[in-house]
């Protein structure tokens, strides 16, 4: 798992340029479930990557501190978001003071942690009543063409296509599903896939061969080379 997590460092610019963001409705839901506004909240965004979630939390008025272990991702974060502070570390060993935070967020990053360590760390750094928010942003397989593409990806990678996303036991999570969409150029859609860890480890030649096949299929559906991507963000929030 460490090799897979660290694969992003060599592709940080690709990741930052082509990974999707998050809809406003996600942050509305975080505020509702946490019982407080993001404006003025002390937030640590763990596994911050290149800062996609950190920047949006900051835009909502949160006092954000990003935590990122990877050299390449941290360098891209600092380039893209020089005004947001970043420290090096991960969810299993948070370099943060105890009881300091209103909110601890993991944007598509909780599955890289060891819950036996990351749950106690979350409890340590949150003040009483503070919230732990985990979310994942997935393409919506209720859309037929996305479901077909997802099946091809799973067939390519088998068991390696997925990462474990189970919620840790012992915490009372409330979960919301938020649907949203974006329209992007076909090349951007394919580059988004190329930025995922399974493709990064597959290698450039095999990745290019697979994505060339996807390009041909999608051109038949989107002849203007503009792809309507549909997503589901699954948010789970608990007060440890």
Give structural notes.
This protein is α/β, with parallel strands linked by helices and 240 residues long. The chain has one domain (2-140, 164-183, 230-238): Rossmann fold. The protein contains ten helices and seven strands. A seven-stranded mixed β-sheet has the order 3-2-1-4-5-7-6. It is globular, with a radius of gyration of 18 Å. The relative contact order is 0.17. The mean pLDDT is 93.
Search tags:
10 helices, alpha/beta, Rossmann fold, 41% helix, 7-stranded mixed β-sheet, 7 strands, globular, 240 residues
Secondary structure layout plus pairing:
Elements (H helix, E strand, L loop, with lengths): L1 H5 L5 H7 L5 H11 L7 E5 L5 H8 L3 E6 L2 H10 L5 E3 L12 E7 L7 H11 E14 L4 H14 L16 E12 H9 L2 H6 L1 H18 L4 E13 L2
Parallel strand pairs: 1-2, 1-4, 2-3, 4-5
Antiparallel strand pairs: 5-7, 6-7
Helix pairs in contact: 2-8, 8-10
Quick structural summary:
The chain is built from ten helices and seven strands.
> How many E strands?
7
Question: In CATH's first tier, which class applies?
Answer: Alpha Beta
CATH topology (level 3) name = Rossmann fold
- What fraction, in percent, of the residue positions are helical? 40-55%
Please report the distance between the alpha carbons of the first and last residues.
26 Å
Structural class: alpha/beta
Unreliable residue runs = none
């Amino acid at each position: 798992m460490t090799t897979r997590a660290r694969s992003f460092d060599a592709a940080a610019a690709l990741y930052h340029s082509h990974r999707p963001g998050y809809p406003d409705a996600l942050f509305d839901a975080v505020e509702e479930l946490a019982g407080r506004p993001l404006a003025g909240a002390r937030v640590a965004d763990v596994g911050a990557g290149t800062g996609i979630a950190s920047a949006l939390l900051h835009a909502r008025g949160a006092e954000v501190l990003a935590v990122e272990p990877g050299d390449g991702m941290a360098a891209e974060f600092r380039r893209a978001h020089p005004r947001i502070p970043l420290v090096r570390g991960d969810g299993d060993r948070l370099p943060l003071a105890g009881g300091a935070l209103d909110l601890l967020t993991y944007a598509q990053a909780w599955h890289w942690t060891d819950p036996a360590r990351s749950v106690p760390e979350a409890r340590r750094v949150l003040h009483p009543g503070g919230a732990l928010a985990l979310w994942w942003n997935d393409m919506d397989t209720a859309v037929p063409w996305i479901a077909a593409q997802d099946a091809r990806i799973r067939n390519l990678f088998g068991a390696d296509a997925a990462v474990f996303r189970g919620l840790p036991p012992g915490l009372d999570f409330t979960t919301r599903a938020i649907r949203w969409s974006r329209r992007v150029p076909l090349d951007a859609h394919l580059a988004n896939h190329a930025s995922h860890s399974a493709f990064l480890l597959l290698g450039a030649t095999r990745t290019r061969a697979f994505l060339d096949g996807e390009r041909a299929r999608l051109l038949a559906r989107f002849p203007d080379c503009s792809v309507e991507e549909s997503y589901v963000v699954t948010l789970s929030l608990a007060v440890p």
